[in-house]
Amino acid sequence: MRVLEPDELRAAHALFGAALHAGGPADDERWAVARTSYDPGRTFGVDQPEGTLAGTATSFGSALTVPGGAQVPMAAVTRVGVRADRTRRGLLTALMREQLQDAADRGEVAATLRASEARIYGRFGYGVASRGRNVRVTAGARFRVDAPPGGDVRLVGVDEAATVLPPLYARILDGATRPGPITRPDGWWASTLRRPAPDTARGIAVHTGPDGDDGFASWTVRQEGSDFGENVLDVADLHAATPQAVAGLWRFLLGIDLLRHVAAHLRPLDEPLDLFLEDPRACRTTGIGDETWLRLLDVPAALAARAWGDTGGEPVRIRVHDPLFPANDGVHVVGAGGPDTRGSTGTSEAEPAAGGRADLECDVAGLAMAYLSDRRPAELVASGWWTAHDRAAVARADRLFAAGEAPWCGTFF
Ligand SMILES: CC(C)(COP(=O)(O)OP(=O)(O)OC[C@H]1O[C@@H](n2cnc3c(N)ncnc32)[C@H](O)[C@@H]1OP(=O)(O)O)[C@@H](O)C(=O)NCCC(=O)NCCS
């Protein structure tokens, strides 16, 4: 297990691509783009005895928006793969341990990832912390007269997008009240915007409202039937600063000619797309899926960073189990004003040192599921993810963890 050198990253990239059945190794053009998204010193590899790579995992530094709008340093974990002939002998486990410790040593409060399969990461303390809705909307669907009219939308090319979108996204993020979005480093933008896709019809548009550019969308179009015009537009990225800009971008996309449907993957659960439309059934939910998998690395810092709901003065004592990071493992006392560090700590379940009796109990993955407010503590107790030692504390914890808008990240990595 070691940190890979820059000249080994291409092999790691190929290993990951093969593990994901994502085609052969990148040619020079694709690699020139992909390499920009590797953060130096953050790619781990496991060697086979004969010296070739058997497994790899990487991450880049980012920041996660938590309830209340603060951002905490975060490792964005990606490109995790083990060679098919070396799986199920503990390589991923070793990679994850090393990577999580490395991120914690860097002062990162959390790690997040997108999971190819839902059974892989829970054992390492990751829990689903945001979910998204897949939608398929009939192209040309009419908007209600009361729906926000939106502003002007202009198409931009990749070069203009590379200049306009990163600062626009950063401005949108600065004003974000929704928990879950992350900062996008330059390498993310470069590798996403410049990814060669020669045969794919792509588009990028910027929305302008009363205060200037305030939203953008990018997409690809594919033919779905055999007849001319039987096309589906797949939204790849859509972020906006205001509900008006969200409506304006959807109006634009649904008004593009020669489309049957506009589809989007993992949109916010509370995006009011159906509410914009005269016929709300023109917007069909085709699925709801997990988006952000969150691993809290520094629970006290994470609890201190987010805003909390009103509990009527009485805090909630939560016993958190974390076999990897002892500083997280104990009782955390949290009230509307945040964690009470005097009351927290103590690793004995029966007699927490200073925190008194625990009201609720969960593991660190269960805490992650409530942290951004995706799941209410009551749901987690009802499903066995959390244990309630004091039933009255459940409703209090629901109010404590509530955050208004549904958490959503909207950045794929
Ligand atoms: C997922 C992957 C990285 C796992 O690597 P691995 O080295 O086999 O994992 P480990 O041997 O450390 O497994 C640890 C545990 O997780 C379980 N596990 C690992 N992958 C699993 C999967 N896909 N489904 C269910 N359980 C899985 C193992 O059975 C093992 O459990 P056990 O200790 O009870 O036996 C590897 O199978 C892979 O590369 N898959 C294809 C690419 C991919 O999906 N990457 C993830 C991208 S997000």
Task: Describe what you observe in this structure.
Helix content is 25%, strand content 29%. With 413 residues, the protein is of the alpha+beta class. A seven-stranded mixed β-sheet has the order 1-2-3-4-5-14-6. The radius of gyration is 23 Å and the shape is globular. 44% of the residues are buried. The model is unreliable at 347-355 (pLDDT under 50). The structure holds coenzyme A. Coenzyme A (COA) binds at residues 19-20, 55, 80-82, 87-93, 115-117, 119-120.
Q: What's the short story on this structure?
A:
With 413 residues, the protein is an alpha+beta fold. It is built from eleven helices and 19 strands. The two termini are 23 Å apart.
**Each distinct ligand:** coenzyme A
CATH architecture of the largest domain: 3-Layer(aba) Sandwich
Low-confidence residue ranges:
347-355
User: What order do the SSEs take from the amino end to the carboxyl end, as H and E?
Assistant: EHHEEEHEEEEHHEEEHEHEEHEEEEHHEH
Q: Roughly what fraction of the amino acids lie in strands?
A: 25-35%
Described by its quaternary structure, the protein is single chain
User: Which CATH top level class of the largest domain fits?
Assistant: Alpha Beta
Helical content stands at: 25-40%
Total helix count? 11
Kindly provide the radius of gyration, computed on alpha-carbon positions and rounded to a whole number of angstroms: 23 Å
